[in-house]
Amino acid sequence: MKPIKTIWHSALGKILISFFGLLLLLSTLTIIPLITYFSGHEVTIRVANVAEDSLRDPQFNYVQPGLVGLTDVDESLLDAPLTDVYDDGDSFYSVLNEQTVYALLDDVQIATVTRVTVERPENDVPYLIVDDIYGRYDMERTEDYYDETGEWRQFYDGVELNFSNLLNAIRNRVPDLNDQLSDGPVEITVRVWRGRFVIVTP
Amino acid sequence: MGQKVSKRSFDLLDDVLTDAQDKAIIDSTQKKDVLAQVEVRKGLDFIRVLVSFGAILIGLGVILFIAGNWQAISNPFKVVIIVTALGLSMGASYVTEKDRPLTSQALLYLSVLIFGAGLFLIDLAYNFNLDPFVLNFVWALAALLLSSVYKDVILFIFAHVLAFVFLVTGFEENVFAYAIPLLGVLFAGNYYFGFRKIVTFGSLLLAQVFLLYTFDFFDLDPIYISFIFLGEGLILYNFKHHLNLEIFQFIGIATAGVAAFSLTFRNLWEDLTFIDNGSFYAIPFSIAFTVYLFTLVSKKQITPLIIISAFILRFYFDTFYEFLPRSLFFILGGFIVLGMGIYIERYRHEEVDDEAH
Which ipTM was obtained for this model? Predict the structure, then answer.
């Protein structure tokens, strides 16, 4: 009796199963973005070119053109482990190397950072994962301290949060972002879910 | 149609048959019959080389054009390019399967690479911000899919490599939900691929990485990790069975060796709160383990000998680096390494000779 040759056993069948199997696997990449889109909190953020903002002092080393507007936060928003680093004038690098830093957002008309913490927030709270965090150098205080004590110690005047992933995504979505920012801040609506985000508008 | 052979082989066959005909071993009809069974394969002609060169140049131009304008290409079109490249590669693999099986296989491997590149490019294009371990996991699944459909052991080994990268990129993350089923499938693959040694080796190695990941995830102290690996390695080495025993033994003794090597450092022992002077434990342990390794060497095993060599070098560096002048230190170190190399090589030859007899 001749064995039944299923499609699985033919060369064409194998290639078709493999190809569509791979496409199916490729499509799994969209699962998390789709969940983020349909289940995420919708927040509007303001993106501004802070380096050209007349209200901001452009002398800080880390203020770069095109930084997301919500990056500049007050030190009172830091949680205890981050406050310790801030008060000691240490680098935040070691914290970021060990732990994830989360920036909790409110959902008022233009979202702002309400808390910066190393504790993972509840899932129903909108938050973004901070890609980089650094203190803004307070040169005046640092120099005063040196004059008084003869020792160098770093003092900060607030904190900069860097959301480079979000900024890259926005740049990808709005290729002429820098031109638009020269005309003023741009508002972007995103949906955030467990630290992940999907840009809704523009 | 006869079997295709090179012009050189055909000439050789012709010469042999002519010689046989001259010696009246065969007649001219038999010679013709034999020669009719083979056909000279077409060699490289000028036009063929020119056409191939032109095709490569065009292909290179297309790739460079796409790469140069990648940022300017819209995201949906990027996906179309990736899927088309994947389809073309797999289609070419299908077309060449009968006439050029090796090329077909190579194109299949290329398809897996295109798929992996596509994963990362799509993630970047759409800013999905997926964790690297997720992408590596999906890539490993792709390699698994193709290896199971084509029963290709190289793809299966490649799936192991990707699983390894997935685990390494997943350190500090909770990847158990991904890793456990993946490891299950990879171990089950041993049965599917007829318990090949290379597959068993890959699966066992991966299991060690998974254990390390697990201990790291639960923040287990390094001293305990070393003890567990030491115990596990010795169990793997000494547990007798008939399933690629030599692979189990190799992984076992190598794991135990690495764990024991870390236990030769006194600082590690001092992690235990009740130990003040780690040397008090590290040195006797090192001696005891070396004695154990020597008992294995006496049973004509080479891996323990390599571990002993590593121990000797480790203590040599630790003891003499501060005391000896640098040049003398390195010259002596070089002689020790050379001596070990010669000894291990001679030992290996003896082992091979014993096996031959």
Answer: 0.72
